[in-house]
Design a protein that fits this description.
Length: about 280
């Protein structure tokens, strides 16, 4: 990776973190730690330099970091265009507000549930996804997100898949094996892997890391793309967000409020000085 001003990078990512919505654990939303987001954003920017990049979900707001770091002059490389597809309207609107506020013309977001057919097949060069990790279904939930990534690039190009990576636990190995096998069946191979790279704000597993799994299309792949279909197979949807947690929600809707970026009033109360009581 190229040299960057670390202080400027951390401060820029801090701006992004300040403006992203809180994670919903029931949907396996778990935020990456800030220092690792700085590193990850540089990795993504270099990997997707000059390309059209689709984010299939992005609760971490890595997409925003990548665009913002380039706009601030911290990086002099990065994707030509970034589109975030997420079923959480809070995430979509946070991306749009930040892009508008900072003049990030290369960044946009669209409300989309990965269980529905993908609306823009073949319009991107590469995709990024950090999906629900599939601990309770051997990675089938990961494969649904990866499928949408493949469709976004017309089964021709590259993808970066962020999933759990641990030498001691059993389930991350099963997930990695399943995702690699699924990718191979779709005409992709693992071109490289960056192991145990990211930490998370995860109370019940603070030491669990994730890897970057890079997949690339085989020569001639993508010629038989027939469009996209909704995912309805009950076996693929079983334990999607964890044990006994099949998908029931189409979209997470945002409650509009005028004080974005400020603490909501239901988080605190004021105890007054004696002379003001």
């Amino acid at each position: 990776m190229r040299q960057v001003d670390l202080r400027m990078a951390v401060n820029a990512v801090s701006d992004v973190v300040q403006n992203r919505p809180k994670p919903l654990r029931e949907f396996d939303q778990i935020h990456m730690k800030t220092g690792d987001m700085v590193m990850q954003s540089e990795i993504v920017a270099e990997w997707a330099d000059g390309k059209n990049l689709a984010f299939i979900g992005d609760g971490d707001a890595v997409s925003v970091c990548v665009a913002y770091l380039r706009a601030r002059g911290v990086l002099d490389f990065g994707p030509k265009k970034i589109t975030v597809f997420d079923f959480d309207e809070r995430t979509v609107q946070a991306v749009k507000r930040f892009a508008d506020q900072e003049g990030l013309s290369s960044l946009d977001a669209e409300l989309y549930n990965c269980l529905k057919e993908f609306p823009h097949c073949g319009q991107y060069d590469c995709f990024y996804t950090n999906p629900p990790w599939g601990a309770s279904n051997n990675g089938e939930s990961v494969n649904v997100f990866v499928q949408r990534g493949f469709e976004s690039i017309g089964y021709h190009g590259e993808g970066m898949i962020v999933i759990a990576d641990d030498d001691e636990l059993h389930w991350p190995k099963m997930v990695l094996a399943n995702v690699q096998a699924y990718s191979a069946r779709q005409g992709f191979y693992v071109s490289r892997m960056q192991r145990k790279l990211h930490g998370y704000h995860l109370d019940d597993a603070p030491d669990l890391k994730s890897c970057n799994l890079f997949v690339s299309s085989l020569p001639g792949n993508g010629k038989n793309l027939t469009g996209s279909e909704a995912v309805t197979d009950s076996e693929r949807l079983r334990n999607f967000y964890g044990q006994s947690k099949a998908p029931r929600v189409l979209y997470v809707r945002e409650r509009k409020r005028p004080d974005y970026g400020k603490a909501p009033e239901d988080e605190y109360w004021l105890e007054l000085l004696e002379n003001d009581q």
